[in-house]
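Teaching note: in complex prediction, the entire set of molecules is handled at once rather than each chain in isolation. The prompt given to students was simply: 'Predict the structure of this complex.' The entities are:
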Amino acid sequence: MGLYVTLIRAQISAQLQYRASFAIQAVGQFLATFTDFIMLLLLFQRFPSIAGWTLGEVAFLYGLGGLAFGISDLLCGGFDGLSKMIRMGTFDRVLIRPVGTFAQVLAGDVQFRRVGRVVQGVVTLGFALSLLDIAWSAPKIAVLVSAIVAGAVIFTAIWVIGAAITFWTVETSEVTNVFTYGGEALVSYPMPIYAEGIRRFFTYVVPLVFVSYLPALFILERPDPLGLPPVLQLCSPIVAVAFLLVARVCWAFGVRHYQGTGS
Amino acid sequence: MLRFVRRKAVDVEAVAGVSFKVGAGEMIGYVGPNGAGKSTTIKMLTGILQPSGGRVRVAGLDPARQRLEVAKRIGVVFGQRSQLWWDLPLVDSFELLRHIYRVPADAYRQRLAYFTELLELGSFLETPVRQLSLGQRMRGDLTASLLHAPPVLFLDEPSIGLDVVAKARIRDLLAQINRDQGVTILLTTHDMADIERLCSRMLIIDHGRVIYDGGIEAIREQYGDERTVVVDLAEAGPPLTVPDATVTRTDGPRQWLRFRRSETTAAQVVASVAATARLRDLTIEEPAIEDIVRGIYERGDRRQNTGVRRGETSPVSCLLGEVVASVAPVHGLDVDRRDV
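The expected output is the structure of the full assembly:
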Protein backbone atom coordinates (compact mmCIF):
# COMPACT_ATOMS: atom_id res chain seq x y z
CA MET A 1 0.00 0.00 0.00
CA GLY A 2 2.83 2.35 0.90
CA LEU A 3 4.46 1.48 -2.39
CA TYR A 4 1.24 2.19 -4.27
CA VAL A 5 1.08 5.65 -2.73
CA THR A 6 4.77 6.27 -3.49
CA LEU A 7 4.34 5.25 -7.12
CA ILE A 8 1.25 7.39 -7.51
CA ARG A 9 2.96 10.39 -5.96
CA ALA A 10 5.80 9.96 -8.44
CA GLN A 11 3.35 9.96 -11.29
CA ILE A 12 1.65 13.11 -10.06
CA SER A 13 4.95 14.94 -10.04
CA ALA A 14 5.82 13.51 -13.46
CA GLN A 15 2.51 14.68 -14.90
CA LEU A 16 2.79 18.07 -13.26
CA GLN A 17 5.89 18.57 -15.39
CA TYR A 18 3.42 19.37 -18.13
CA ARG A 19 1.04 21.62 -16.21
CA ALA A 20 -0.80 23.20 -19.12
CA SER A 21 -1.36 19.88 -20.82
CA PHE A 22 -2.57 18.40 -17.54
CA ALA A 23 -5.10 21.20 -16.99
CA ILE A 24 -6.41 21.15 -20.55
CA GLN A 25 -6.85 17.40 -20.53
CA ALA A 26 -8.59 17.36 -17.15
CA VAL A 27 -11.04 20.03 -18.27
CA GLY A 28 -11.48 18.22 -21.57
CA GLN A 29 -12.34 14.98 -19.81
CA PHE A 30 -14.88 16.79 -17.67
CA LEU A 31 -16.52 18.47 -20.66
CA ALA A 32 -16.57 15.29 -22.74
CA THR A 33 -18.39 13.32 -20.06
CA PHE A 34 -20.59 16.26 -19.14
CA THR A 35 -21.79 16.54 -22.74
CA ASP A 36 -23.22 13.04 -22.39
CA PHE A 37 -25.17 14.26 -19.41
CA ILE A 38 -26.55 17.20 -21.40
CA MET A 39 -27.94 14.61 -23.81
CA LEU A 40 -29.82 13.09 -20.89
CA LEU A 41 -31.26 16.48 -19.93
CA LEU A 42 -32.43 17.01 -23.52
CA LEU A 43 -34.06 13.60 -23.45
CA PHE A 44 -36.10 14.63 -20.41
CA GLN A 45 -37.21 17.80 -22.22
CA ARG A 46 -39.22 15.51 -24.51
CA PHE A 47 -40.23 12.74 -22.09
CA PRO A 48 -41.24 13.26 -18.46
CA SER A 49 -39.83 9.90 -17.40
CA ILE A 50 -37.93 6.83 -18.61
CA ALA A 51 -39.50 3.50 -17.62
CA GLY A 52 -41.20 5.32 -14.80
CA TRP A 53 -37.97 6.93 -13.52
CA THR A 54 -37.88 10.71 -13.13
CA LEU A 55 -35.01 12.96 -14.16
CA GLY A 56 -33.67 13.09 -10.60
CA GLU A 57 -33.75 9.33 -10.30
CA VAL A 58 -32.02 8.71 -13.62
CA ALA A 59 -29.48 11.40 -12.78
CA PHE A 60 -28.84 9.53 -9.54
CA LEU A 61 -28.08 6.33 -11.49
CA TYR A 62 -26.00 8.37 -13.89
CA GLY A 63 -23.96 10.02 -11.14
CA LEU A 64 -23.47 6.80 -9.20
CA GLY A 65 -22.25 4.89 -12.26
CA GLY A 66 -20.15 7.80 -13.49
CA LEU A 67 -18.46 8.30 -10.14
CA ALA A 68 -17.69 4.59 -9.71
CA PHE A 69 -16.33 4.40 -13.24
CA GLY A 70 -14.36 7.62 -12.80
CA ILE A 71 -12.66 6.40 -9.63
CA SER A 72 -11.76 3.11 -11.27
CA ASP A 73 -10.49 4.85 -14.39
CA LEU A 74 -8.42 7.27 -12.32
CA LEU A 75 -6.83 4.90 -9.82
CA CYS A 76 -6.66 1.63 -11.74
CA GLY A 77 -6.30 2.76 -15.34
CA GLY A 78 -2.93 0.99 -15.64
CA PHE A 79 -4.64 -2.12 -16.89
CA ASP A 80 -5.92 -0.25 -19.92
CA GLY A 81 -2.31 0.38 -20.91
CA LEU A 82 -1.19 -3.24 -20.73
CA SER A 83 -1.37 -3.69 -24.49
CA LYS A 84 1.15 -0.90 -24.91
CA MET A 85 3.35 -2.35 -22.17
CA ILE A 86 3.45 -5.71 -23.93
CA ARG A 87 4.20 -4.15 -27.31
CA MET A 88 6.91 -1.85 -25.96
CA GLY A 89 8.41 -4.62 -23.87
CA THR A 90 7.97 -2.70 -20.63
CA PHE A 91 6.01 -5.56 -19.12
CA ASP A 92 9.36 -7.39 -18.91
CA ARG A 93 10.47 -4.69 -16.50
CA VAL A 94 7.48 -5.47 -14.30
CA LEU A 95 8.55 -9.11 -14.15
CA ILE A 96 12.10 -8.40 -12.97
CA ARG A 97 10.96 -6.47 -9.91
CA PRO A 98 10.28 -8.05 -6.53
CA VAL A 99 6.67 -6.88 -6.38
CA GLY A 100 3.56 -8.63 -7.67
CA THR A 101 2.63 -7.92 -11.28
CA PHE A 102 -0.95 -6.98 -10.37
CA ALA A 103 0.10 -4.23 -7.97
CA GLN A 104 2.74 -2.87 -10.35
CA VAL A 105 0.39 -2.60 -13.31
CA LEU A 106 -2.37 -1.22 -11.08
CA ALA A 107 -0.13 1.62 -9.99
CA GLY A 108 1.74 1.79 -13.27
CA ASP A 109 -0.28 4.30 -15.23
CA VAL A 110 -2.31 6.67 -13.12
CA GLN A 111 -3.44 9.59 -15.30
CA PHE A 112 -4.56 12.49 -13.21
CA ARG A 113 -6.27 14.22 -16.07
CA ARG A 114 -8.92 11.53 -15.57
CA VAL A 115 -9.92 13.38 -12.43
CA GLY A 116 -12.29 15.27 -14.77
CA ARG A 117 -14.47 12.18 -14.97
CA VAL A 118 -14.67 11.90 -11.20
CA VAL A 119 -15.67 15.55 -10.91
CA GLN A 120 -18.41 14.99 -13.46
CA GLY A 121 -19.72 12.05 -11.40
CA VAL A 122 -19.77 14.13 -8.23
CA VAL A 123 -21.51 17.05 -9.97
CA THR A 124 -24.17 14.80 -11.48
CA LEU A 125 -24.77 13.01 -8.20
CA GLY A 126 -25.09 16.36 -6.43
CA PHE A 127 -27.54 17.54 -9.07
CA ALA A 128 -29.61 14.35 -8.61
CA LEU A 129 -29.68 14.68 -4.83
CA SER A 130 -30.88 18.29 -5.16
CA LEU A 131 -33.87 17.10 -7.22
CA LEU A 132 -34.69 14.12 -5.06
CA ASP A 133 -36.25 14.12 -1.65
CA ILE A 134 -34.57 11.18 0.03
CA ALA A 135 -35.30 10.22 3.61
CA TRP A 136 -31.68 9.54 4.60
CA SER A 137 -30.89 6.88 7.15
CA ALA A 138 -27.67 5.20 8.25
CA PRO A 139 -28.29 2.09 6.11
CA LYS A 140 -28.96 4.26 3.06
CA ILE A 141 -25.75 6.22 3.53
CA ALA A 142 -23.85 2.96 4.01
CA VAL A 143 -25.36 1.54 0.81
CA LEU A 144 -24.50 4.71 -1.13
CA VAL A 145 -20.87 4.75 -0.02
CA SER A 146 -20.40 1.01 -0.43
CA ALA A 147 -22.04 1.13 -3.87
CA ILE A 148 -19.55 3.76 -5.07
CA VAL A 149 -16.59 1.70 -3.85
CA ALA A 150 -18.08 -1.60 -5.03
CA GLY A 151 -18.89 -0.08 -8.41
CA ALA A 152 -15.30 1.10 -8.80
CA VAL A 153 -14.09 -2.40 -7.91
CA ILE A 154 -16.47 -4.02 -10.42
CA PHE A 155 -15.28 -1.74 -13.22
CA THR A 156 -11.66 -2.41 -12.20
CA ALA A 157 -12.29 -6.15 -12.38
CA ILE A 158 -13.55 -5.69 -15.94
CA TRP A 159 -10.37 -3.78 -16.84
CA VAL A 160 -8.32 -6.58 -15.31
CA ILE A 161 -10.13 -9.33 -17.20
CA GLY A 162 -9.82 -7.34 -20.41
CA ALA A 163 -6.11 -6.84 -19.74
CA ALA A 164 -5.67 -10.54 -19.01
CA ILE A 165 -7.09 -11.30 -22.44
CA THR A 166 -4.51 -8.92 -23.90
CA PHE A 167 -1.82 -11.44 -22.93
CA TRP A 168 -3.18 -13.61 -25.75
CA THR A 169 -4.36 -10.98 -28.22
CA VAL A 170 -1.68 -8.29 -27.57
CA GLU A 171 -4.08 -5.66 -28.92
CA THR A 172 -6.66 -4.36 -26.47
CA SER A 173 -9.89 -5.92 -27.53
CA GLU A 174 -12.85 -3.72 -28.37
CA VAL A 175 -14.92 -6.22 -26.44
CA THR A 176 -13.35 -4.88 -23.25
CA ASN A 177 -14.45 -1.36 -24.13
CA VAL A 178 -18.00 -2.59 -24.55
CA PHE A 179 -18.02 -3.54 -20.90
CA THR A 180 -16.06 -0.61 -19.52
CA TYR A 181 -17.05 2.54 -21.40
CA GLY A 182 -20.17 0.80 -22.66
CA GLY A 183 -20.83 -0.49 -19.17
CA GLU A 184 -20.73 3.01 -17.75
CA ALA A 185 -23.39 4.10 -20.25
CA LEU A 186 -25.42 0.99 -19.53
CA VAL A 187 -25.60 1.50 -15.78
CA SER A 188 -26.68 5.13 -16.26
CA TYR A 189 -30.21 4.06 -17.20
CA PRO A 190 -32.76 1.98 -15.32
CA MET A 191 -32.49 -1.73 -16.06
CA PRO A 192 -36.13 -2.22 -17.09
CA ILE A 193 -35.46 -0.39 -20.36
CA TYR A 194 -33.21 -3.26 -21.50
CA ALA A 195 -34.25 -6.59 -22.98
CA GLU A 196 -34.38 -9.53 -20.62
CA GLY A 197 -31.33 -11.29 -22.07
CA ILE A 198 -29.18 -8.20 -21.57
CA ARG A 199 -30.44 -7.76 -18.00
CA ARG A 200 -29.66 -11.36 -17.13
CA PHE A 201 -26.19 -11.09 -18.66
CA PHE A 202 -25.38 -7.99 -16.63
CA THR A 203 -26.71 -9.59 -13.46
CA TYR A 204 -25.18 -13.04 -13.56
CA VAL A 205 -22.17 -12.80 -15.89
CA VAL A 206 -20.84 -9.25 -15.69
CA PRO A 207 -22.50 -7.95 -12.51
CA LEU A 208 -23.02 -4.35 -13.61
CA VAL A 209 -26.51 -4.14 -12.07
CA PHE A 210 -24.75 -4.01 -8.70
CA VAL A 211 -22.99 -0.77 -9.64
CA SER A 212 -25.98 1.55 -9.59
CA TYR A 213 -29.35 -0.02 -10.33
CA LEU A 214 -29.76 -2.31 -7.31
CA PRO A 215 -28.28 0.10 -4.73
CA ALA A 216 -30.45 2.88 -6.22
CA LEU A 217 -33.60 0.80 -5.73
CA PHE A 218 -32.76 0.57 -2.05
CA ILE A 219 -31.92 4.22 -1.58
CA LEU A 220 -34.85 5.50 -3.67
CA GLU A 221 -37.20 2.93 -2.14
CA ARG A 222 -38.49 1.88 -5.52
CA PRO A 223 -40.15 -1.44 -6.17
CA ASP A 224 -38.21 -3.70 -8.51
CA PRO A 225 -40.28 -4.53 -11.58
CA LEU A 226 -37.76 -7.22 -12.40
CA GLY A 227 -38.47 -9.09 -9.18
CA LEU A 228 -34.90 -9.75 -8.04
CA PRO A 229 -34.62 -10.66 -4.34
CA PRO A 230 -34.42 -7.35 -2.39
CA VAL A 231 -31.45 -8.65 -0.37
CA LEU A 232 -29.35 -8.34 -3.53
CA GLN A 233 -29.70 -4.55 -3.22
CA LEU A 234 -27.27 -4.77 -0.28
CA CYS A 235 -24.89 -7.23 -1.88
CA SER A 236 -22.80 -4.95 -4.11
CA PRO A 237 -19.63 -5.17 -1.94
CA ILE A 238 -19.74 -8.98 -1.79
CA VAL A 239 -20.34 -9.28 -5.50
CA ALA A 240 -17.55 -6.80 -6.19
CA VAL A 241 -15.01 -8.72 -4.11
CA ALA A 242 -16.01 -12.02 -5.70
CA PHE A 243 -15.78 -10.56 -9.19
CA LEU A 244 -12.36 -9.09 -8.41
CA LEU A 245 -11.16 -12.52 -7.26
CA VAL A 246 -12.29 -13.99 -10.57
CA ALA A 247 -10.38 -11.21 -12.30
CA ARG A 248 -7.25 -11.97 -10.26
CA VAL A 249 -7.40 -15.61 -11.36
CA CYS A 250 -7.71 -14.52 -15.01
CA TRP A 251 -4.76 -12.18 -14.50
CA ALA A 252 -2.60 -14.95 -13.03
CA PHE A 253 -3.43 -17.15 -16.03
CA GLY A 254 -2.56 -14.33 -18.39
CA VAL A 255 0.81 -13.64 -16.77
CA ARG A 256 1.65 -17.35 -16.86
CA HIS A 257 0.76 -17.43 -20.54
CA TYR A 258 3.04 -14.47 -21.18
CA GLN A 259 5.91 -16.16 -19.35
CA GLY A 260 5.33 -19.28 -21.42
CA THR A 261 5.52 -17.57 -24.79
CA GLY A 262 7.02 -14.14 -24.47
CA SER A 263 4.36 -12.91 -26.90
CA MET B 1 -4.65 -12.16 -48.47
CA LEU B 2 -5.38 -15.50 -46.89
CA ARG B 3 -2.19 -15.10 -44.89
CA PHE B 4 -3.63 -11.96 -43.42
CA VAL B 5 -6.83 -13.66 -42.41
CA ARG B 6 -5.35 -16.87 -41.09
CA ARG B 7 -1.91 -16.70 -39.71
CA LYS B 8 -0.48 -20.16 -39.41
CA ALA B 9 0.85 -21.07 -36.00
CA VAL B 10 4.56 -21.78 -36.13
CA ASP B 11 6.43 -23.20 -33.21
CA VAL B 12 9.85 -21.67 -33.12
CA GLU B 13 12.31 -23.12 -30.72
CA ALA B 14 14.16 -20.08 -29.49
CA VAL B 15 16.63 -22.00 -27.41
CA ALA B 16 17.31 -25.60 -28.28
CA GLY B 17 20.13 -26.75 -26.09
CA VAL B 18 21.71 -24.18 -23.91
CA SER B 19 23.80 -25.44 -21.06
CA PHE B 20 26.19 -23.61 -18.87
CA LYS B 21 27.21 -23.06 -15.30
CA VAL B 22 28.53 -19.83 -13.94
CA GLY B 23 30.31 -19.89 -10.63
CA ALA B 24 29.82 -17.24 -7.97
CA GLY B 25 31.93 -14.18 -8.67
CA GLU B 26 32.58 -15.05 -12.31
CA MET B 27 32.15 -12.55 -15.11
CA ILE B 28 31.25 -14.16 -18.40
CA GLY B 29 30.60 -12.83 -21.86
CA TYR B 30 27.56 -14.22 -23.59
CA VAL B 31 27.71 -13.60 -27.31
CA GLY B 32 26.02 -14.67 -30.49
CA PRO B 33 24.57 -13.17 -33.65
CA ASN B 34 21.21 -11.39 -33.59
CA GLY B 35 18.42 -13.87 -33.07
CA ALA B 36 20.71 -16.54 -31.66
CA GLY B 37 18.72 -16.78 -28.45
CA LYS B 38 20.78 -14.57 -26.14
CA SER B 39 17.96 -12.35 -24.99
CA THR B 40 15.68 -15.35 -24.61
CA THR B 41 18.21 -16.98 -22.31
CA ILE B 42 18.51 -13.81 -20.26
CA LYS B 43 14.74 -13.59 -20.01
CA MET B 44 14.65 -17.17 -18.74
CA LEU B 45 17.36 -16.46 -16.19
CA THR B 46 15.58 -13.35 -14.93
CA GLY B 47 12.16 -14.97 -14.60
CA ILE B 48 10.53 -13.07 -17.45
CA LEU B 49 10.04 -16.24 -19.47
CA GLN B 50 9.64 -19.80 -18.41
CA PRO B 51 11.43 -22.47 -20.47
CA SER B 52 9.15 -25.13 -21.89
CA GLY B 53 11.56 -27.74 -20.64
CA GLY B 54 14.63 -28.07 -18.54
CA ARG B 55 15.82 -26.46 -15.36
CA VAL B 56 17.19 -23.02 -14.63
CA ARG B 57 18.72 -21.96 -11.33
CA VAL B 58 19.83 -18.50 -10.36
CA ALA B 59 21.41 -18.12 -6.95
CA GLY B 60 20.01 -21.55 -6.21
CA LEU B 61 16.43 -20.54 -7.06
CA ASP B 62 14.06 -21.26 -9.92
CA PRO B 63 13.39 -17.88 -11.60
CA ALA B 64 10.01 -18.84 -13.04
CA ARG B 65 8.64 -20.37 -9.83
CA GLN B 66 10.32 -18.09 -7.31
CA ARG B 67 10.21 -14.91 -9.36
CA LEU B 68 9.97 -12.49 -6.43
CA GLU B 69 12.81 -14.13 -4.49
CA VAL B 70 15.03 -14.17 -7.58
CA ALA B 71 14.13 -10.55 -8.38
CA LYS B 72 15.57 -9.42 -5.04
CA ARG B 73 18.88 -11.11 -5.82
CA ILE B 74 19.45 -9.98 -9.39
CA GLY B 75 20.07 -6.74 -11.20
CA VAL B 76 19.11 -6.44 -14.85
CA VAL B 77 20.13 -3.86 -17.41
CA PHE B 78 18.61 -3.88 -20.88
CA GLY B 79 20.71 -1.58 -23.01
CA GLN B 80 17.87 -0.82 -25.36
CA ARG B 81 15.24 -0.23 -22.71
CA SER B 82 15.60 2.00 -19.73
CA GLN B 83 14.02 1.06 -16.45
CA LEU B 84 14.08 4.67 -15.25
CA TRP B 85 11.03 6.91 -15.04
CA TRP B 86 11.16 9.04 -18.14
CA ASP B 87 9.65 12.27 -16.79
CA LEU B 88 11.23 12.24 -13.35
CA PRO B 89 14.65 13.48 -12.22
CA LEU B 90 17.13 10.61 -12.15
CA VAL B 91 17.36 10.63 -8.38
CA ASP B 92 13.57 10.15 -8.10
CA SER B 93 13.84 6.90 -10.04
CA PHE B 94 16.46 5.72 -7.56
CA GLU B 95 14.18 6.75 -4.70
CA LEU B 96 11.28 4.74 -6.19
CA LEU B 97 13.50 1.71 -6.66
CA ARG B 98 14.57 2.02 -3.06
CA HIS B 99 10.92 1.52 -2.10
CA ILE B 100 10.34 -1.25 -4.60
CA TYR B 101 13.37 -3.21 -3.40
CA ARG B 102 12.93 -2.17 0.24
CA VAL B 103 16.51 -0.99 0.57
CA PRO B 104 17.23 0.35 4.08
CA ALA B 105 17.75 4.13 4.03
CA ASP B 106 21.35 3.94 5.31
CA ALA B 107 22.45 1.34 2.80
CA TYR B 108 20.71 3.30 0.05
CA ARG B 109 22.50 6.55 0.89
CA GLN B 110 25.83 4.77 1.06
CA ARG B 111 25.39 2.98 -2.28
CA LEU B 112 24.07 6.05 -4.03
CA ALA B 113 27.09 8.01 -2.84
CA TYR B 114 29.38 5.21 -4.06
CA PHE B 115 27.90 5.13 -7.56
CA THR B 116 27.56 8.90 -7.76
CA GLU B 117 31.28 9.20 -7.22
CA LEU B 118 32.32 6.27 -9.39
CA LEU B 119 30.09 7.09 -12.34
CA GLU B 120 30.14 10.86 -11.85
CA LEU B 121 26.38 11.16 -11.65
CA GLY B 122 26.45 14.30 -9.52
CA SER B 123 25.94 16.79 -12.33
CA PHE B 124 22.73 15.23 -13.64
CA LEU B 125 21.05 13.57 -10.63
CA GLU B 126 18.33 16.24 -10.69
CA THR B 127 17.83 16.15 -14.47
CA PRO B 128 14.72 14.46 -15.86
CA VAL B 129 15.71 11.17 -17.47
CA ARG B 130 14.31 12.20 -20.84
CA GLN B 131 16.93 14.96 -21.05
CA LEU B 132 19.92 12.72 -20.33
CA SER B 133 22.40 11.70 -22.99
CA LEU B 134 22.57 8.01 -23.82
CA GLY B 135 25.78 7.62 -21.83
CA GLN B 136 24.35 9.41 -18.79
CA ARG B 137 21.18 7.36 -18.98
CA MET B 138 23.12 4.12 -19.12
CA ARG B 139 25.12 5.14 -16.06
CA GLY B 140 21.79 5.83 -14.38
CA ASP B 141 20.39 2.47 -15.45
CA LEU B 142 23.45 0.68 -14.18
CA THR B 143 23.15 2.40 -10.81
CA ALA B 144 19.43 1.58 -10.73
CA SER B 145 20.18 -2.10 -11.22
CA LEU B 146 22.73 -2.18 -8.41
CA LEU B 147 21.09 -0.13 -5.63
CA HIS B 148 19.74 -3.26 -3.95
CA ALA B 149 23.22 -4.83 -4.06
CA PRO B 150 22.29 -7.91 -6.06
CA PRO B 151 24.81 -10.78 -6.03
CA VAL B 152 24.03 -11.47 -9.70
CA LEU B 153 23.93 -8.92 -12.50
CA PHE B 154 22.62 -9.47 -16.02
CA LEU B 155 23.56 -7.00 -18.72
CA ASP B 156 21.95 -7.17 -22.13
CA GLU B 157 24.00 -4.98 -24.46
CA PRO B 158 24.85 -2.26 -21.95
CA SER B 159 27.31 -0.53 -24.26
CA ILE B 160 25.08 -0.26 -27.31
CA GLY B 161 25.36 3.14 -28.94
CA LEU B 162 27.83 4.53 -26.40
CA ASP B 163 30.98 6.48 -27.22
CA VAL B 164 34.40 5.19 -26.20
CA VAL B 165 34.57 7.31 -23.04
CA ALA B 166 31.19 6.16 -21.77
CA LYS B 167 32.05 2.57 -22.63
CA ALA B 168 35.28 2.76 -20.69
CA ARG B 169 33.56 4.20 -17.66
CA ILE B 170 31.02 1.41 -17.62
CA ARG B 171 33.68 -1.25 -18.11
CA ASP B 172 35.62 0.14 -15.18
CA LEU B 173 32.58 0.01 -12.96
CA LEU B 174 31.76 -3.57 -13.93
CA ALA B 175 35.33 -4.66 -13.31
CA GLN B 176 35.29 -2.95 -9.95
CA ILE B 177 32.03 -4.39 -8.60
CA ASN B 178 33.05 -7.82 -9.84
CA ARG B 179 36.42 -7.57 -8.13
CA ASP B 180 35.46 -5.77 -4.92
CA GLN B 181 31.99 -7.11 -4.24
CA GLY B 182 32.19 -10.45 -5.99
CA VAL B 183 29.13 -9.72 -8.10
CA THR B 184 28.53 -12.49 -10.63
CA ILE B 185 28.08 -10.89 -14.03
CA LEU B 186 26.64 -12.22 -17.26
CA LEU B 187 27.28 -9.78 -20.05
CA THR B 188 25.66 -9.89 -23.46
CA THR B 189 27.24 -7.70 -26.06
CA HIS B 190 28.21 -7.38 -29.69
CA ASP B 191 31.32 -5.48 -28.71
CA MET B 192 34.16 -7.97 -28.48
CA ALA B 193 36.33 -5.33 -26.85
CA ASP B 194 33.94 -5.38 -23.86
CA ILE B 195 34.42 -9.12 -23.55
CA GLU B 196 38.19 -9.05 -24.06
CA ARG B 197 38.64 -6.35 -21.45
CA LEU B 198 36.31 -7.78 -18.84
CA CYS B 199 35.61 -11.46 -19.13
CA SER B 200 37.86 -14.41 -18.57
CA ARG B 201 35.31 -16.68 -20.13
CA MET B 202 33.11 -16.48 -23.17
CA LEU B 203 30.05 -18.38 -24.21
CA ILE B 204 29.06 -18.29 -27.85
CA ILE B 205 25.54 -19.28 -28.72
CA ASP B 206 24.00 -19.66 -32.13
CA HIS B 207 20.75 -21.16 -33.37
CA GLY B 208 19.76 -21.69 -29.76
CA ARG B 209 22.80 -23.82 -28.96
CA VAL B 210 26.06 -23.22 -27.16
CA ILE B 211 28.81 -23.52 -29.74
CA TYR B 212 31.73 -22.36 -27.64
CA ASP B 213 32.33 -22.19 -23.92
CA GLY B 214 35.82 -21.41 -22.76
CA GLY B 215 38.54 -18.87 -22.17
CA ILE B 216 39.11 -15.86 -24.38
CA GLU B 217 42.68 -16.88 -25.20
CA ALA B 218 41.70 -20.49 -25.76
CA ILE B 219 39.35 -19.42 -28.53
CA ARG B 220 42.35 -18.14 -30.47
CA GLU B 221 43.99 -21.52 -30.05
CA GLN B 222 40.88 -23.39 -31.08
CA TYR B 223 39.47 -21.28 -33.88
CA GLY B 224 42.18 -18.77 -34.68
CA ASP B 225 44.18 -21.07 -36.91
CA GLU B 226 44.80 -18.40 -39.51
CA ARG B 227 47.66 -15.93 -39.35
CA THR B 228 48.71 -13.26 -41.76
CA VAL B 229 52.29 -12.33 -42.61
CA VAL B 230 52.58 -8.77 -43.83
CA VAL B 231 55.74 -8.31 -45.87
CA ASP B 232 57.31 -5.11 -47.20
CA LEU B 233 59.26 -5.94 -50.36
CA ALA B 234 61.97 -3.86 -51.97
CA GLU B 235 59.71 -3.04 -54.89
CA ALA B 236 56.09 -3.44 -55.94
CA GLY B 237 55.36 -6.52 -57.99
CA PRO B 238 52.71 -9.10 -58.84
CA PRO B 239 51.28 -11.19 -55.95
CA LEU B 240 53.79 -13.73 -54.76
CA THR B 241 53.27 -17.45 -55.11
CA VAL B 242 54.19 -19.14 -51.87
CA PRO B 243 53.35 -22.75 -50.95
CA ASP B 244 50.54 -23.09 -48.31
CA ALA B 245 49.89 -19.34 -48.21
CA THR B 246 47.67 -17.03 -50.26
CA VAL B 247 48.03 -13.36 -50.92
CA THR B 248 44.89 -11.66 -49.69
CA ARG B 249 45.87 -8.06 -50.40
CA THR B 250 48.58 -6.00 -51.99
CA ASP B 251 49.38 -2.33 -51.55
CA GLY B 252 52.42 -1.21 -53.55
CA PRO B 253 55.41 -3.11 -52.20
CA ARG B 254 53.36 -4.40 -49.23
CA GLN B 255 51.65 -7.78 -49.46
CA TRP B 256 49.44 -9.74 -47.04
CA LEU B 257 49.89 -13.52 -47.01
CA ARG B 258 47.43 -15.68 -45.13
CA PHE B 259 48.34 -19.16 -43.93
CA ARG B 260 47.08 -21.81 -41.56
CA ARG B 261 49.24 -22.74 -38.63
CA SER B 262 48.09 -26.31 -39.00
CA GLU B 263 49.56 -26.45 -42.53
CA THR B 264 52.75 -24.45 -42.28
CA THR B 265 54.65 -22.06 -40.03
CA ALA B 266 55.36 -18.38 -40.21
CA ALA B 267 59.06 -19.17 -40.57
CA GLN B 268 58.45 -21.31 -43.66
CA VAL B 269 56.26 -18.66 -45.27
CA VAL B 270 58.86 -16.00 -44.61
CA ALA B 271 61.62 -18.24 -45.93
CA SER B 272 59.65 -18.86 -49.13
CA VAL B 273 59.07 -15.15 -49.59
CA ALA B 274 62.76 -14.37 -49.00
CA ALA B 275 63.71 -16.96 -51.60
CA THR B 276 61.70 -15.23 -54.36
CA ALA B 277 61.83 -11.52 -53.48
CA ARG B 278 63.87 -9.00 -51.56
CA LEU B 279 62.32 -8.61 -48.09
CA ARG B 280 62.70 -5.35 -46.19
CA ASP B 281 60.36 -5.75 -43.25
CA LEU B 282 57.67 -8.04 -41.93
CA THR B 283 54.98 -8.32 -39.23
CA ILE B 284 52.72 -11.19 -38.24
CA GLU B 285 49.06 -10.42 -37.52
CA GLU B 286 47.03 -12.43 -35.05
CA PRO B 287 43.35 -12.65 -35.83
CA ALA B 288 41.17 -10.32 -33.79
CA ILE B 289 38.65 -12.02 -31.49
CA GLU B 290 35.99 -10.23 -33.47
CA ASP B 291 37.11 -11.90 -36.71
CA ILE B 292 37.28 -15.30 -35.05
CA VAL B 293 33.80 -14.93 -33.68
CA ARG B 294 32.53 -13.76 -37.06
CA GLY B 295 34.08 -16.86 -38.60
CA ILE B 296 32.27 -19.03 -36.07
CA TYR B 297 28.95 -17.30 -36.78
CA GLU B 298 29.40 -17.75 -40.52
CA ARG B 299 30.18 -21.43 -40.16
CA GLY B 300 27.11 -21.79 -37.97
CA ASP B 301 25.00 -20.11 -40.64
CA ARG B 302 26.05 -22.66 -43.20
CA ARG B 303 25.22 -25.56 -40.93
CA GLN B 304 21.68 -24.49 -40.03
CA ASN B 305 21.44 -27.45 -37.73
CA THR B 306 18.29 -26.65 -35.79
CA GLY B 307 14.80 -25.48 -36.50
CA VAL B 308 15.47 -21.99 -35.25
CA ARG B 309 14.70 -19.34 -37.79
CA ARG B 310 16.47 -16.09 -37.43
CA GLY B 311 14.44 -12.93 -37.64
CA GLU B 312 11.18 -14.59 -36.66
CA THR B 313 9.92 -11.86 -34.44
CA SER B 314 6.27 -12.61 -34.02
CA PRO B 315 5.47 -16.27 -34.25
CA VAL B 316 1.91 -17.00 -33.23
CA SER B 317 3.20 -19.37 -30.64
CA CYS B 318 6.71 -19.77 -29.50
CA LEU B 319 8.24 -22.80 -27.92
CA LEU B 320 10.89 -21.54 -25.61
CA GLY B 321 12.89 -24.73 -25.69
CA GLU B 322 14.78 -26.97 -23.40
CA VAL B 323 17.01 -25.69 -20.70
CA VAL B 324 17.90 -28.25 -18.06
CA ALA B 325 19.87 -27.39 -14.98
CA SER B 326 21.82 -29.37 -12.45
CA VAL B 327 22.40 -28.51 -8.81
CA ALA B 328 23.18 -24.85 -8.42
CA PRO B 329 25.50 -23.04 -6.12
CA VAL B 330 23.69 -20.95 -3.56
CA HIS B 331 25.38 -17.92 -5.00
CA GLY B 332 25.79 -17.46 -8.72
CA LEU B 333 23.80 -19.01 -11.49
CA ASP B 334 23.65 -22.32 -13.13
CA VAL B 335 22.03 -23.60 -16.29
CA ASP B 336 22.55 -27.03 -17.68
CA ARG B 337 21.30 -28.87 -20.70
CA ARG B 338 20.01 -32.28 -21.54
CA ASP B 339 20.59 -33.16 -25.17
CA VAL B 340 17.40 -32.81 -27.11
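Point out the following to students. The radius of gyration of chain B is 24 Å. Confidence is low (pLDDT under 50) at residues 1-11, 304-334, 336-340 of chain B.
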